Amino acid sequence: MRDFLIKLSKIERRYIYLALFLALTLPLIFPPNFPQKMSPTVKSVFEFIDTLPPGSHVLLSADYDASVLPEVDPMYRAVLKHCILRGVIPVGMTLYPQGAVLALDAFKEAEEYLGARRDTDYVFLGYQAGFQAVILGIGENIKNVFPKDYFGTPIDSIPAMRGVKNYKDIALVISFSGSSVPVTWVIYAYSKYHQKVAAAVTAVSAADFYPYIQTGQFVGMLAGMKGAAEYEYAVRKIMKDKGIEKLPPAKAVKGMDANSIGHLLIMLFIIIGNLGYFASKRRK
Amino acid sequence: MIWIYLIINLLGNAPPRVFDVPNDGGNALMLEWQLPPDSLGKVDSMLILRKTLPEGKVDTITKVFINHPEFVDEGVNYKKAYQYSILYFIGPVQIHSEWSPPTKPVASWIDTRKIPLFILMILYTTILLVYIFTARKGRELYLRPIAGLEAVDEAVGRATEMGRPIVYVPGLSSISDVATIAALNILAHITKKAGEYETKIIVPVRDPVVYTVAREVVREAYYTIGRPDLFDPGQVYFATDSQFGYAAHVSALMTREKSATNFFMGMFWAESLILAETGASTGAIQVAGTDAVTQLPFFVVTCDYTLIGEELYAASAYLSKEPLLTASIKGQDQMKLLIMVVMILLSLLSVFGVNITLGLF
Amino acid sequence: MHISTDPWVWVAAILTLAIFTFLYKDNPLFKFAEHLFVGVATGYGLVIIYFNAFKPNLYQPLFVEHNLLYIIPFFFGILYFSAAIPKFSYMMRWPIALLLGIGSGLSIPLSFQTYIVEHTKSTILRFPYPNAVLFINALILFIGVLTVLIYFYFSYPHKGAIGTISRIGIIFIMIGFGASFGYTVMARFSLLVGRIQFLLGQWLGIHSVM
Amino acid sequence: MFQRRIPLIIVFITGVLMSIQYFIPHPISQSAYNIALTWFRGVASMAYAIAVISFVRHHSRRLKQPQNRFYSAVALLAFLFMCIAGFGFGIGEGTVFYKMYLNVQVPLQATTFSLLAFYMASAAYRAFRVKGFEATLLLITAFIVMFGVTTIGNYIPFIPRLTEWLMAVPNLASKRGILIGVGLGMISTSLKIILGIERNWLGG
């Protein structure tokens, strides 16, 4: 027994590599679909949107470019679908020039899978230059900043925008980003106009944002692939409950399941490595 | 378009107040205004007009937000003067304010907000110079021993015992990176040490300028110990400037040459673990040193010894046995002490309700 | 399952596999890929540096706009070629000096700002705190920064009280390292998942993995 | 004289000017700054010439070694091919140069980068052993955070919060402490370079 344990502390690295390769590949081919329990910060965002009265407006700012796509894009898609499923009107915009095309694709997906209609179920405003000026401007009058939407329709003639003037008429702003833009939203929209703000960010930048959660400046936060997967899972569940048969690809859930198994594998290796280490130490 | 500006001028509307924005290059003016009295109706929107003097050219600058009664015009030049006027739209009526008196933006020669930082810089320079002059006078300065140093020499010794080469990676950054400078200092020491035992040292480099300097450092080191014959122009070379191309190359190098000792000193990014873990898999002794906080965990886990952050700079001072470098470590220490005192003092003051902002931007 | 018919995808897939073979052991296929990588990357670097750095910053202002101010950097740049002539190779130090001077000069005030002032400012305790948790966190942070700084204080040996304090410092450092290590695993796994998805999905055509 | 003094004078003058300009917002200082930056980029770009010379020399030398001949020829040919493609036929989208970049360099880069996943696993297995106090601390925090970032971690009530706390408090404290010291070292080295005290870059 002890010899076996000692052997465990000296597994050749090639076997570790092989095990890891399988741990990350098999879940991609045979998705395990682990049930995802929401972490507290994700839950606060989800529940906020879930309990909004239908017809409320949520501003989804796609403040990211292609470099952080794998983590942030699934979040945008999931939150957007959640809004539509709940009858909340998502208003898409971006502070990054590249963001418009990326976000538009998410709206197209919502059209395809949920039959969302432009200008009645959602609004897409597109890109406007200048971070601070745009955020402050919306507090004044959204029409000043976005006189027309992305497709050139004047804001006044969009049915879904009726009665929306400034932050007072917007229930929540979510900034999707891989940088510090969510903090800019906090500084100008939260501090000046008391607008509720949430963040959806990459895992790397999330570490800098935890203090804002503690002080309540963010309603909640979706962090990294994990946050994306948790939200995506919940939204897919709503879709299934509603009897929608054709579901969009579960990118984040799939990636996260593979990732979780990979993490567990490393942890397992650490444990058996230490068992073997103890066994060999006791022999001496 | 001109006719828009020719509108009934009601009751002599006050012009906007114009201020120079201080501490800039004379490229901004700030405007403040008061909305016309409510009796005239609610303002729907407004435009700011700017007249550039001496030409007298009028531009419409921007649409602004009504309830935010200030605006910074960043499109001005310190060589010219400007007048401003505001055009209010109230229903079908347009109201034109008077022109503000001509204002010239001022280009400042010093940014007063940065003065505290400047003082701090002078202070630090002085502390450093004081120590450096003390050292020049030949006074011995005490520094505590650091554990990693013996590790460096032991690692060189081991390569000698095994009769296998040393691989020295001077980081992936450029010559203006402090870590690279420290790495080159350490390279000089290690080359001398290795040269005494005729142990081969291979230095693949990623940055072209660092390559030329590293080559000179190695040549010079052999020359100092009286063995210029040991220098082989092929032992220091530019590998490639692609981060992962370099990582792939050095991984292969360590595996093929079966190096007994690997040094990773300088600035590293994500490739750190590729290098260190491949090196570990060949059973080599490894000593790392970097000030890249994000990569330190990986070196600490995979290397036999790691110089953490400042220890890298300190090691370069110790090993080069240059009293002036030791003096500067001493100067850094005193500055560190000062920072700690400031932190504690300001925190204590805050306990008693006095919150001092450092006034540093 | 529809295996890709795009030859470029095949090239990318074979090279991907070639790199992976290094995990088993060094072999001719990897050695080929490594040398190809180094060659292509160096060629790419030269072409890109020419078009993105040399052309706009030197060639354009000097030879097209005839701005004579740019003779100076061009002259300095030419000196690099003295590397090829041993007798004059010391001249190469001039451009290096120019780069170092500009680089060091720029970095002094900026490093003060980003490394010293910002970190010091956000570490100092600021009362009042909205709740006890925030205060305790700020206090731990404060103690952590101070003890780590003392660990790096070289003028006094790690003995007595200083020894104890720097021991606390090293505890913070180790916890920090452990946390960053654990936190980075996800990002690296995601990269590998991306490569596996490329191999299985784009190359072998198992689209369900994407 | 020419060997050491002139470079030291150049470093001193440019260094002092560049550190002072930070405090002067006047357009004259700003345009000097912009010119210095283009000079910097221009001169730095020409340094690549050295890279190319060294690269070609290094691999030509290896052409004489039978075991390396083939591979160094591959490196040289690949280099030459990219140069001809880039300078001869342009670098825009759809060119051979761009395709080589996208289908040769990018996958090689991404795959080498992804090797890190394997190395993370083997490094953790090999090094995370309960020996000594510090190693144990490292192991435990890494373990908690790894658990905290997975889906399963959410089922244990305190794990997600603890992970956040570890990242936001002790991790931040250690980073800050290290960075303050590193900053001081950077500044002092830059000063020493400008003042001509640190001369190692002159080569020995």
UniProtKB/TrEMBL annotation, chain A:
Membrane spanning residue stretches: 15-34, 170-190, 261-279
Alphabetic keyword roster: Membrane, Transmembrane, Transmembrane helix
Superkingdom of source: Bacteria
Protein name: Uncharacterized protein
Organism: candidate division WOR-3 bacterium
Automatic annotation (TrEMBL), chain B:
InterPro entries referenced in this protein's UniProt entry, alphabetically: DUF6754, FN3_dom, FN3_sf
Keywords tagged on the record: Membrane, Transmembrane, Transmembrane helix
Domain Fibronectin type-III: 15-111
Segments crossing the lipid bilayer: 115-134, 337-358
Database matches in Pfam families: DUF6754
Name this polypeptide is given: Fibronectin type-III domain-containing protein
Source organism per UniProt: candidate division WOR-3 bacterium
From TrEMBL, chain C:
Keywords: Membrane, Transmembrane, Transmembrane helix
Transmembrane parts of this sequence: 7-24, 36-54, 66-85, 91-112, 132-154, 160-185
Protein name: Uncharacterized protein
